[in-house]
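Researcher: We plan to redesign the surface later, but first we want a full-length starting point. Tokens attached.
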């Protein structure tokens, strides 16, 4: 069962992050509008988020929005990154279904209806899968394959293509998730944490014809680091002491064990402490264990400050009766 029920005639928001895409914008908007018309989607808005472009992207967006009230523009003061652009789009979206799409025409807008159909079947998140991806193999496809595999194992949400921007979300999902760093690609995993029903579907992918890709290999490291955050938030956000305290107790235990071993060596084998390196291990592990437990307690304070200052609940209710 999906988290949220669908209406009959859904309003669709299409969120597009834009950074220096002046060569692509005209064709993007034209193709998108024609394609939506062809797919009989006429209840929509297009939100173009200019992520601090240094080229003419914003002028083009403004021109389009003056001619068409369904095209909305948001402009950042500087480049904050694709994740922030998508997040701003989410915050300003009015749709029941929110679709994200790249501005460089690599995603095919004619796939949108496919995603919407799956949402209507009860999914809360539908992720595109660039089955035949048109990007360089060594620097893009291979690292992405490895990353998807690791993300699947760590988060428990196995998708072929976390990196594909073409995805669809129900509004309740995106309105409840905050995004930092490179985290937009983890949205399905974050959605899974709030109980969403997720699926994926192969989508068309095209070569970038104009403009340059904004990313290289270095992104992979950011993605892996963000993965730690996602895993930590998912598993221990409300009880960090279980993680830190657990490690702390284990380290203290090892420390005590080695201290006792040193004592045994002295009593029964007559090995003096200053000649027994085991005591070093004990001295290292025990204080480290204490530190971990204290860190866990500080984290507990932070969690309380976070949840209580914003009156956040550590749970999400699906339905109620007679309340
Ligand atoms: N993008 C953005 N801010 C950035 C980098 C990229 O808004 O700092 C946008 C970019 O304009 C494009 C999308 O994010 O619409 C994906 O970027 P790109 O095509 O460079 O990534 P790739 O497809 O090569 O992974
Ligand atoms: Mg691209």
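Model: Full-length starting sequence:
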């Amino acid at each position: 069962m999906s988290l949220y029920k669908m209406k009959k005639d859904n309003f669709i928001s299409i969120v597009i992050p834009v950074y220096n895409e002046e060569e692509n914008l005209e064709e993007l908007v034209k193709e998108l509008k024609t394609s939506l018309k062809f797919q009989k989607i006429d209840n929509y808005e297009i939100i173009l988020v200019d992520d601090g472009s240094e080229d003419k992207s914003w002028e083009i967006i403004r021109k389009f929005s003056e001619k068409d009230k369904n095209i909305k523009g948001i402009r950042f003061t500087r480049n904050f990154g694709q994740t922030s652009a998508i997040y701003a789009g989410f915050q300003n979206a009015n749709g029941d279904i929110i679709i994200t799409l790249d501005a460089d025409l690599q995603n095919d807008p004619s796939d949108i209806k496919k995603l919407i159909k799956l949402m209507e079947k009860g999914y809360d998140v539908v992720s595109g899968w660039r089955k035949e991806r048109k990007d360089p193999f060594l620097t893009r496809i291979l690292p992405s394959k490895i990353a998807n595999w690791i993300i699947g194992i760590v988060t428990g949400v196995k998708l072929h293509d976390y990196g594909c921007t073409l995805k669809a979300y129900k509004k309740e999902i995106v309105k409840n998730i905050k995004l930092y760093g490179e985290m937009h690609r983890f949205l399905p995993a974050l959605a899974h944490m709030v109980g969403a029903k997720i699926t994926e579907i192969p989508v068309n992918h095209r070569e970038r014809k104009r403009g340059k890709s904004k990313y290289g290999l270095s992104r992979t490291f950011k993605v892996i680091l963000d993965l730690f955050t996602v895993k930590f938030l998912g598993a221990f956000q409300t009880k960090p002491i279980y993680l830190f305290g657990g490690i702390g107790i284990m380290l203290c235990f090892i420390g005590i064990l080695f201290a006792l071993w040193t004592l045994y060596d002295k009593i029964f084998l007559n090995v003096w402490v200053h000649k027994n390196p085991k005591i070093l291990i004990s001295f290292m592990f025990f204080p480290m264990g204490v530190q971990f437990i204290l860190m866990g307690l500080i984290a507990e304070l932070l969690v309380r400050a976070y949840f209580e200052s914003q009156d956040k609940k550590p749970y999400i209710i699906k339905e109620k009766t007679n309340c």
